[in-house]
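Render this sequence as a predicted structure.
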Amino acid sequence: ATLPAEEDYRRFHPAYFQGDLQLTEEYDVWRRHPANWIGQLRACHAAYSRYVGRDAVSFEEALVGLVRLHTRCFMETEMVPLLDLANTADDIEAFNVETVEPKGRPTRLCFKAMRDIAAGEELLMNYQTDH
């Protein structure tokens, strides 16, 4: 599986919509809500660019990264792209990763390798766990 490309998000995601979404301020978190994710990203990117200089990623690259992160949120858990791409298998012996919650971060999940994983090997986890 692959992540959507920036062009894909441009077709449907509110972060890329140029017109009026006709959303109340409460729901327009990308522009009008006090969270103003795009405004915060612009400020953060400007500071980052001053610090890093010409090696900085572009604002557009930062925006697509932020969109990818926010499209993988469920309630209080952010599923970074790696986490939601793991598959499962019928054979319990095939599982090579499990999810764990870092101490003090109950809304975060990480992978823990159950054995050595070869480069290019598919990540397989048990979807039936209680994590």
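Summary. Strands lie at 73-74, 77-78, 97-100, 110-113. The chain has a mean pLDDT of 79.
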